[in-house]
Amino acid sequence: MKTPADSGFAFPDWAYKPESSPGSRQIQLWHFILELLRKEEYHDVIAWQGDYGEFVIKDPDEVARLWGARKCKPQMNYDKLSRALRYYYNKRILHKTKGKRFTYKFNFNKLVLVNYPFIDMGSGRVPQSAPPVPTGGNHFRFPPSTPSEVLSSSEELRSPGMFSSVARRMARGSVSDCSDGTSTNSELEEAMGADERGMGPERAYRGLLPPRLPHDSFFRVYPNPAGLARHGPRVHPEPLSPFPVSPLPGPGGLLAPTLSPALSMTPTPHLPYTPSPSLSSPMLGSHFSFNAEDMKHYLQAHTQSVYNYHLSPRAFLHYPNIIIPQPHRPTPEKPAAHHLHGQQHPSLFSHSLGQQPGGGEEGQQYPSPFKLQPPPLGRKQRESGSSLAASSSSSSSSQSSSFTGSSQKINSALSAGPPKIKVEPISDIESEEEVEVTDISDEDELNHIDEDDEGDIFTRTARHHPHHQLNNHLRANGNGSSHSAPPHANPDDDPDDDEEVFKTPATPSLSGGGLAFPLIHLKSEPGQAAPISPGGTRCIPLKLRFKRRWSEDQKMEADGERDEAEDKKVRANGEEEVGGKREEVGRRVGEVENGGGREGAGGVILGLMLPPPPTQRRASSELQRATAQLSLENTGC
DNA sequence: GACGGAATCC
DNA sequence: GGATTCCGTC
C-alpha cells in the first residue's frame, strides 16, 4: 500500500509549475514540505502524523536547514520558515494544528484546487497509496461524519503518499544550483530510487496521460444544467456534492482519473479525520456510496464547480480567454440558463487553459470546458433588500472581469453608507465563516454553493468590479443598454488590468445560442468595434455619455445662473460648509484623475456622484470638467 | 512557540 | 507573488 514510489500517481505536466522545474529555486515551501514528507529519509525530520494531511516537523532546525539549502538561504531558520508557513494559513493551503508543537496540516483541497486547477482526469494511473476504498469495486464511500467515527490510525493510511510522483517530480526539479555542497536536493535526488531516475518526465508523466477522453466527455455538464449547483454539500449531500472523495477506480478503471490530491486524498472511514476548513465542512453528515459512474459525474461537476465558484482568481489569470456568461436577469427565475453546456459552444473553449510556460501545446490540448457562472445570491445579499438590487442585478457582469484586487478600492469609493458587501483580500475571502454571497440568483438551490468552505472568490471579487459598477450605473441612468454594457465602454488604460480580465475570442457570440443571457465581452481585440449586445443596443461610448451629461448639467447650470447671485449670499454664510463639500468632491475627482479608480472606475465614481445636489453646483462644475477631461482621455469604447 | 505586521528581496 | 527578514506581542 505504502509504496509511493510505485504508486504511479501522476500529475499532468501542466500541473507542475515551472518553479518545480529542475534547477529552479522557486519551489514553493509547501512543495518542499511535501517533498520531504514523501521521503522516508526525512521522516525523522518531518513526517505525517496525526490527522489526515497533518504532519509534524520533528526537527525544525533541520527542516529549516534543508529549506534554506534548497533556497540557497543559509540563514534560514525555523522562525523564518514558520513565518512562511503561516502565510499559508490565509491561503488555506496549510493550517496549524492547535496545541501540537510544530504540527501543521495540509489543506489538500485548497492546495490542489489552486495549484492544480486542471488536474487531469483522464489518466489511467491511480494513486495506490491514496486512502483506501473500503468496499472496493466501483463504489466510493465518503468519510465519516466526525473524526470520532473513525478510529484507525494507520500511519500509512494517513500519509497522503500519492504525492509520490509529484514529489518525485519535485525531487527531480528540486536540484538546487546552490554550490554550497549542502544541497537538499542532492539528498533528495539520492533518495530517489533508480527506477525513478531512469524514467524521464515524458515517460513518467506525460506518457501516463494519454489517451485521454475529450474534455467534453469528461466535463460534460449534467442534463440538468443546474444540477451541478443543486447538489450542494450541505443541503443536498448527493453524489455531486463538491467535496473531495477517494477516487479509487473500480476494476474496470472507469474513472481511472489522475486526481488532484484534494480529491484523492480524501480520508476514508478508515482514516482519522479532523474537519478542516475546506475538507471537512462539506463532508459533515455525509456518508455516501455510489458507483463509479456517479463518481465520474461528480468529478466533472466538482471540477467545473471549482471554476465556477471556488478557484482562486489567480488561477484564472492564466486563462485569459474565458468567456463569462452575462446573465440578463429580467426574470431571476431562470437561473438554470446560467449553466452552459460546454459542447454546445465549443468555440468558447478554444482558448488555452494551459499555463505551462513553454508548454502551450498543453493548453491547446485541453481547451477549457469551463465558463464562469454567476454565483448564487447569498443570504446577506438577499436580505440587503432592494437597495442593493440594482447593484446585485448586474453583479453578473462584474464577475466576468473582476479577478483583480483593484475592485476593492472602487468598491470602497462607491460605498455610500454602511457597506453591504464585505470586501476582503482574496486570501481571506475563502473563509467558510466569512463567506458572503452576492449574486443575482434567487434560486435557493444555488445558494448553498456559496456557503462552501471554498468560498466564492469570484463572487465577491467580481461583484465589486468597476465594470460591473459602471454598467450598473449606466443602466440606472438609462443611458446604457437594457443589457449589460459591454466593458468596451469602459476606459481601461491599465495594461495590468488587461492581464487580469478574460479575453474574448473572436467568435464570442453566444447570444444566438439560445442562451437566456448575453455574454459579456470582457475584452475585445484592439480596434474592435463596440459590440452590439444581444438586445441590439450598441455600446455608447463613455465619452459620449459624459458629453451628454456634461451638456445636461451645463444647461442646468445655466438655468440656475439666475439664482447664482442669491446663492452667493447664502453661500457667504455657508461658505464653510460648501467648501467642505467642494473639497470632498475635489478629492473624489482627484481620485479619478489620479487613477484612483482603475478600469473606468472614474466613471463609476462620477456616476454615483451625479447628479449633484444643488448646493454642490460649483463642485459639480469642477466635476464636470474633470469628467470631460477624463472622457477625453478615454478614447475607446 | 506561535502569531502576524511591516519592510524588503527576488 | 512568494517568500525572507525582523520584530513586537501573546
Automatic annotation (TrEMBL):
<feature type="compositionally biased region" description="Acidic residues">
    <location>
        <begin position="427"/>
        <end position="456"/>
    </location>
</feature>
<feature type="compositionally biased region" description="Low complexity">
    <location>
        <begin position="384"/>
        <end position="408"/>
    </location>
</feature>
<keyword id="KW-0238">DNA-binding</keyword>
<feature type="compositionally biased region" description="Polar residues">
    <location>
        <begin position="471"/>
        <end position="484"/>
    </location>
</feature>
<dbReference type="GO" id="GO:0005634">
    <property type="term" value="C:nucleus"/>
</dbReference>
<dbReference type="InterPro" id="IPR036388">
    <property type="entry name" value="WH-like_DNA-bd_sf"/>
</dbReference>
<keyword id="KW-0539">Nucleus</keyword>
<feature type="region of interest" description="Disordered">
    <location>
        <begin position="549"/>
        <end position="637"/>
    </location>
</feature>
<feature type="region of interest" description="Disordered">
    <location>
        <begin position="136"/>
        <end position="157"/>
    </location>
</feature>
<protein>
    <recommendedName>
        <fullName>ETS domain-containing protein</fullName>
    </recommendedName>
</protein>
<feature type="region of interest" description="Disordered">
    <location>
        <begin position="173"/>
        <end position="199"/>
    </location>
</feature>
<feature type="compositionally biased region" description="Polar residues">
    <location>
        <begin position="176"/>
        <end position="186"/>
    </location>
</feature>
<feature type="compositionally biased region" description="Gly residues">
    <location>
        <begin position="593"/>
        <end position="605"/>
    </location>
</feature>
<dbReference type="InterPro" id="IPR036390">
    <property type="entry name" value="WH_DNA-bd_sf"/>
</dbReference>
<feature type="region of interest" description="Disordered">
    <location>
        <begin position="323"/>
        <end position="512"/>
    </location>
</feature>
<feature type="domain" description="ETS">
    <location>
        <begin position="27"/>
        <end position="107"/>
    </location>
</feature>
<feature type="compositionally biased region" description="Basic residues">
    <location>
        <begin position="461"/>
        <end position="470"/>
    </location>
</feature>
<dbReference type="Pfam" id="PF00178">
    <property type="entry name" value="Ets"/>
</dbReference>
<dbReference type="GO" id="GO:0030154">
    <property type="term" value="P:cell differentiation"/>
</dbReference>
<dbReference type="InterPro" id="IPR046328">
    <property type="entry name" value="ETS_fam"/>
</dbReference>
<feature type="compositionally biased region" description="Basic and acidic residues">
    <location>
        <begin position="549"/>
        <end position="591"/>
    </location>
</feature>
<dbReference type="InterPro" id="IPR000418">
    <property type="entry name" value="Ets_dom"/>
</dbReference>
<keyword id="KW-0804">Transcription</keyword>
<feature type="compositionally biased region" description="Polar residues">
    <location>
        <begin position="344"/>
        <end position="353"/>
    </location>
</feature>
<dbReference type="GO" id="GO:0000981">
    <property type="term" value="F:DNA-binding transcription factor activity, RNA polymerase II-specific"/>
</dbReference>
<keyword id="KW-0805">Transcription regulation</keyword>
<comment type="similarity">
    <text>Belongs to the ETS family.</text>
</comment>
<dbReference type="GO" id="GO:0043565">
    <property type="term" value="F:sequence-specific DNA binding"/>
</dbReference>
<feature type="compositionally biased region" description="Polar residues">
    <location>
        <begin position="617"/>
        <end position="637"/>
    </location>
</feature>
